[in-house]
Fold:
Amino acid sequence: MNVGLPHFLTVSAALFALGMFAVMSRRNAIGILMGVELMLNAANINFVAFSRYVQHGIDGQIMAAFVIVLAAAEAAVALAIVLAMFRNFGTVHADSVQSLKR
Amino acid sequence: MTGDLVFILLALLTIVPAIWVVFSPNIVHAGFALLFTLFGAAGLYAYMGADFIAVTQMMVYIGGVLVLVLFTVMMTRVPQGKRANYGLDRYVPAAVFALAVFGLLYKTITSVDWGASYTEPVPTVAEIGTNFMTNYIFPFEYVSLVLLAAMIGAAILIREQKPSQGASDQGEIDQEETEVPS
Structure:
């Protein structure tokens, strides 16, 4: 076996499918957020793999750095929303929260 | 040969805890499994010669995002008395859809000729820094603005609300403004 682009893409596809499954099946809002993190990591692995094996440049890695920064911002805002949701509704289950205000 | 072994170990380190993240009924266990998945992804970046991205992944994801996630998990523990019914009504469609997406991606990966070739890895930190300050200066500044806005938004969302809301809202703002010069 010679490790190349398809192997990384396969790992990334598995990670993306798992993240998508978590987003669709989890009830806990934090679990949904973890699924989103998995999907963003899958996208990042793809960016770096294509930059390494196809483009032979640096642009994909810079895009991966931007994705990491935006994931951090997304996590901060989403977890703040989860905490506000817990304070107002007393639950973190996404199914049981159906209104935008108390 | 050693490289292949390292890749297999890193891929397992990425995928196996990810399965645990997805299926664990305990959200705290899922959070700690996410730690290993992110670590494995950082290892994959390092394997691909992306040293800067690997270090950034460890610092931002493992040091920042994961701590935030675990912090929120600990803050929002609900009593585990009533078990939600884990019916198949939401697992089956999700599994079917996720498997379909994986099958489609795998078929695309194996059938397309990507024109991949191997080159020796080079250190990337200096080049990434130069690019951030030249070619990517506008996205760099823009993403810092986004991060600032997200931080302010999170702080406002998380702020403790006073019980007597509404009537004293305007008064509070005025008071804060008058306190600033003194």
Notes: The mean pLDDT of chain A is 89. Residues 16 and 39 of chain A are 5 Å apart (CA to CA). Chain A touches chain B through 72 residues (CB under 8 Å). The helical segments of chain A are 5-25, 29-55, 59-89.
